[in-house]
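Posting here for the record, re: zinc ion.
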Amino acid sequence: MTAIASSNQPPPTDAGAHMHALVAELFPLCRSITGNGVRQTLRRLQQEIPLTIHEVRSGTPVLDWTVPDEWNVRGAYIANSRGERVVDFERGNLHLVSYSRPVHTTLSLAELKPHLHTLPDQPQLIPYRTTYYEDNWGFCLAQAQLEALPEDNYEVRVDTSLQPGSLTYGELRIQGATDDEILISAHCCHPSLANDNLSGIAVAVALAQFLSRVHNRYSYRFIFAPATIGAITWLARNQDIVPRIRHGIVLSCVGDEGMSTYKRSRHGSATVDRAVEHVLRHSNESYRVLPFEPYGYDERQYCSPGFNLPVGCLMRTPNSRFPEYHTSADHVDFVKPHALQDTLGKLHRVIELIERDRSYVNLFPYGEPQLGRRGLYEGSRGVPHLHGYELALLWVLNLSDGSKSLLDIAEQADLPFSVILRAAERLEAARLLAPAAPSVPTAATRMAINQGAIR
Ligand code: ZN
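Prediction output follows.
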């Protein structure tokens, strides 16, 4: 029989504090879609999990894209005529537009202004801006500071390099009892932004640490890659692995205090979609489910029609829907240890559900078997009562004809998966239930599933 998760213990209660400390430690690094900030981030993660770091050379064709030149920063500032640095990368990496090309010149305020980016509606905050695929440079600052800048001649120095190098991403695979894989993906290309990128990284690391310690039915693949180009690069290099991915979740913005949000995969009703929605529905907390849209994080790439993987996106408050998004207010303090802990707990329940979901066959299908005689009713023999459990016994016996999984039964009975699972385990122990013969899809079937021909 296949091994399943050996522990259904929830993550330790101090996991939130550990994840938050990792967010704080990684926060100052100047990440972008390439360069040393990503490398340093991934090397730090190697102290937590045995991550493999891949380097893909600039110029490498990846699907319809090309791996760009590598960008690194030595320093960048704007100084007034007295030599005072009024904007300085050293004071915060959001000040420099990511992928700014090198420049060293002196400009009037009017000449400088087209290169300055602010948030007029949030005058105290510094925006996050990029110029990945345009040959440009710029600085970001608070609107209040811009308004206070006097006429002057400003020295502009952008000491960056933009030259052939490589794109860096990290990957960890945890072997399970089968080669079928669950994909967990987080982007790692944002500089000092805590909720948008670091929260997803921290939760993914904590989940990987947990899954490394237990026996899993599925194999797990964790990808830490720059958004868009990183996921496209991984997909381009791993097309033979794609058919093994049975379920997947992108993690992003999972550390704020907003309610949990799940964005469905392109399938809409894949097992992962149903599993996440089931866990959220039975969490006794508010939550939000969004339909798939081809905008957002790397689910866009995994759910592109050629791959069409069953990959959804787990968030708290979604991107663009919180005022701190892509600003200097997405700071370490915006991410809360209890929110990270809550996300990890829910993710753990989703994984537990997918690991344990399977079909059974009722071995006594003619009339209801006599449950009391077998000591299956709780409250008897000192077994604590579990709400819905006795009803769950009847549902599991009635619907276990081999065609319905425990998740199917939990949904039809409108009972938590954990209660249905407990009933199935006890019915199996009483020899009233047996696992249905596993139906192992062939690689060709899986390809058809992935391409949407089969559900
Ligand atoms: Zn972002």
